[in-house]
Amino acid sequence: MIRMNAYRYLIAFTVAAGCLLASPSHGDDKAATESVSVFGEKKLAVPDAWKRTKPQSSIVEHEFIVKEAEGDDAPSARVTLMAAGGDVKANIDRWKGQFTGGDAAAQKTEKKEFGDWTVHVVDLSGNFKESVGGGPFFGGRVVERTDYAMLGAILVHPNGRKYFVKMTGPADLVKANRDGMLQMFDGLKD
Length: 190
What we know:
Layout: H1 2-22, E1 35-38, E2 42-45, E3 50-53, E4 62-67, E5 76-84, H2 88-97, E6 99-100, E7 108-114, E8 117-132, E9 141-156, E10 162-170, H3 171-176, H4 178-184
Antiparallel strand pairs: 1-2, 3-4, 4-5, 5-10, 6-8, 7-8, 8-9, 9-10
């Protein structure tokens, strides 16, 4: 009985400590700004409009939702952050393959430098083939979303490791939050 109670207290303490570590820091009267760590080396300040949510996949380190307005049924975009591998071009081509239609002139890829990090920024729009229920590799299904966009970024560490940041959702919502996402990458300069 004593061992079971001690175990429960240990679990409660661990959960509480984890929540404190994952929460944004709070100042006196200033609004808290949440940040995420990239490889334990750099901190990226998360835009205030992003609200943390439980990742839909175990490979995603951080997940946020961006809403157009308050309310459960308001249009929203999904933002995922995670370490990943593979060739930059192959990943960008895979992202492009998830979209059909759309304005070809609006599809673009840029290479930017933030300190000694290289960031490949990808803007895509059109009809998005979204994997739901586990994805195509895990027995899921594909749903086509019309008038969607993706703002993707592959952050390349000076030693070659890669970190992915992707926002996918209604085109107007993703485009309205583009500058906020790009400003995050200023944290790579420190």
